[in-house]
Amino acid sequence: MAKRKKKFYITTPIYYVNDRPHVGHSYTTLAADVLARYHRLKEEKVFFLTGTDEHGFKVAQAAAAAKKPTQEFVDEKAAFFKESWSKLNINYDNFLRTTNPAHISAVTTATKHLYEKNFIYKDKYEGLYCQNCEQYKTLDDLIEGKCPEHQIEPQLIREESYFFRLSKFEKILREKIEIGELKIEPPEKKNEILAFFKKGLKDISISRANVAWGIPLPFDKRYSLYVWIDAFLNYLTGLGWNGEFGKAPNFFPPDVQLMSKDILRVHVTIWPALLLALELSLPKKIFVHGYFTVNGQKMSKSLGNVIWPEELIQKFGVDGARYLLISSLSYGQDGDVSWERLIAKYNADLANNLGNLVNRVLKLSEGIKVKIGKGKPRIKNLEKLFNELKFKEILDAIWQKISWANKHIEDKKLWDLVKTNPNEGKKVLSELLSLISEIAEKIAPFMPETSEKILNQLKTGKGEILFPRLR
Ligand SMILES: [Zn+2]
């Protein structure tokens, strides 16, 4: 019997369409792409979902400010994201937009059932609401009375509201997080979340009055559904789920869900609680990556220091941009970038190290018959690092071998050796060609085009410049 292929389902958050994608969005999506490519190369059945979050007050407001019909506005913004992902050579399986009619219909069905099964009830609500987070805040969440993410004072909102019984799931969720059935990585984030659970989970308001740009509550059309509920269900509707309880779509649950730290809390409370209510299984792993700072400062439009993926691609090429983005953040840590350091890293790692190695070895092999050696793999233990999402460490391991190979050429004075001792020279070249072929395979998830180019050059024996030096 043929072995059943392992499945791998990976998601990014769906991005809010009030902006173009910057390096933060790009990092999340690229990391998902790298993992998806890695698992596809292992011949697993992979589904990679991304998309855009298009409902809510802020979107309607931004569309009004741009003097555009809201649907036209979100169409335009979603297209920006698709275009950026295409430029970055991101190979997703579905791009889910929350204004998609099938998504809206499934969310409506699910919401109706949640109400019928008494997971949703009506009550009065008063609370502090950050319009930019689209989240209610407790006094504990605020720093000097302001939302720490947005530096704005939340509004006091009093309304009749529908609530989701989040509190009902507090105990079971805490247990599942504690025992690692729902993994939160890196570990310090798990501890942070468990500390947050100690304060207790309260039921949350899931209805908004006077927000026309949203999905109407099927049992009370005066209200629209809280955007986060609408957004979370994308991880199901993106696989074709139609809103039925207990009926998991193919590929569900997610094996890894990637996100930045600002949206972790909702992803380990509201999202898994919804899944339990819907009688579906929980994601296996939630991974939180850090933020990019630029020269030590938070990236912001007002500081004018935002780095756009298009600028990176223009300067470094697609694979150069992919390499620099993914190697800028360590496992779960923040990372600081500057144009000077990006250029220096590009020159050091790509032009002088990898590019130079391939070029030199192919030049030296020209005109002599050298077979590519078939040695054992030299770069080991990447599987464990991939499972732990330690991308930078994987690249470090590969680049160590590249550095070693360049040094080996120097130590052996290979350009002389091929003349003075052709047999020995051929042997060293053969080993190096084998290593280069292994490197090409191992960088494929990160730099698919470069991988292909190198493998092609190995076939034709003609070396061409992979990464021109930048000044
Ligand atoms: Zn906020």
How is this fold's topology laid out?
Elements: E1 7-11, E2 15-16, H1 23-41, E3 45-53, H2 57-65, H3 70-87, E4 94-97, H4 101-116, E5 120-130, E6 135-137, E7 155-164, H5 170-178, E8 183-185, H6 187-198, E9 204-205, E10 207-209, E11 216-217, E12 220-225, H7 227-232, H8 234-237, E13 256-260, H9 264-267, H10 270-277, E14 285-289, E15 292-294, E16 297-298, H11 309-326, E17 335-337, H12 339-365, H13 382-387, H14 391-411, H15 414-420, H16 422-442, H17 448-460
Parallel strand pairs: 1-3, 1-13, 2-3, 3-4, 8-14, 13-14, 15-17
Antiparallel strand pairs: 5-6, 5-7, 7-9, 10-12, 11-12, 15-16
Zinc ion is lined by residues 130, 132-133, 147, 149-150.
How would you describe this protein?
With 471 residues, the chain is an alpha/beta fold. Helix content is 46%, strand content 17%. It contains 17 helices and 17 strands. Helix 1 (23-41) links the parallel strand 2 (15-16) and strand 3. Zinc ion binds at residues 130, 132-133, 147, 149-150.
Distance between the termini: 57 Å
**Could you name the CATH homologous superfamily of the largest domain?**
HUPs
What percent of residues are in strands? 15-25%
Largest sheet: 7 strands, parallel
Helix content: 40-55%
Which molecules are bound in this entry? Answer: zinc ion
Structural class category: alpha/beta
Number of strands: 17
Briefly, what CATH class of the largest domain? Alpha Beta
Radius of gyration, in Å, reads 25 Å
Count of separate DSSP helical elements: 17
The number of domains is: 2
The backbone outline, from C-alpha atoms, is elongated
Indicate the CATH architecture of the largest domain.
Answer: 3-Layer(aba) Sandwich
